Amino acid sequence: MLSNKNLFLAITIIVNKIKAIKMQLHRKDSKDTEEYATRGPFASIFGGPVARLLDQALIVGNMEQTITILAESTNLSYKTTKTALEKLEKMGFAAQTRKIGNAQAYRFLVENHLSGLLACGAEFQRNRTDI
Fold first, then answer.
1. What share of the chain is helix, strand, coil (3-state, %, to 5)?
2. Which of helix, strand or coil describes residue 81?
3. Which terminus of the chain faces fewer neighbouring Cβ atoms within 10 Å, N or C?
4. pLDDT above 50 for 126
5. 3-state class of 65 per DSSP?
């Protein structure tokens, strides 16, 4: 079991890696202005904040994340992220885990029906030719 300090360190490392990937994916030509947060399979098909969170679930699996971390990695506001996360929670795709300081941690429930949905999204992403 990770201590809060080690968990925070791991989350910080992952957020920094996501930011590095985000910077790499931005193309230099002016025609491609699509943001990284909208490049995922679910966001490109369905759009909207719930789709962006599902794309994030594709990246992180069932690792704990706070609303702030999810908001930063999906380019959504804190309030929008919280609302979308509550929708996913009602559908059984996410759950509150524990408090880390003042922040509530959440986990995507990949082992539920979400795993099939994420596998479908991953396959779609591999077959895309527009990136």
1. 65, 10, 25
2. helix
3. N
4. yes
5. strand
The terminus-to-terminus CA distance of the chain in angstroms comes to: 38
- Tell me the CATH number for domain 4-24+36-127: 1.10.10.10
Burial 49-77 (b: 16+ CB within 10 A, else e): bbbbbbbbbbbbebbbbbbebbbbbbebe
Phi, psi angle pair for 110, to nearest 5°: -60, -35
- Give the ranges where 1-131 is alpha helix by DSSP (H): 4-25, 41-45, 49-60, 67-74, 78-91, 115-127
Q: Residue written as tokens 């559908």?
A: 91
Per the CB < 8 A criterion, the answer to whether 90 and 82 are in contact is: no
Share of the chain above pLDDT 90, in %: 16
Q: What is the DSSP letter of 99?
A: E
Place of tokens 């759009």: 47
- Tens digits of per-residue pLDDT, 71-102? 988 889 999 999 999 999 998 888 999 988 88
Rg for the chain, CA atoms, rounded: 15
Residue boundaries of the structural domains of the chain: 4-24+36-127
Q: What is the reported pLDDT for 30?
A: 36
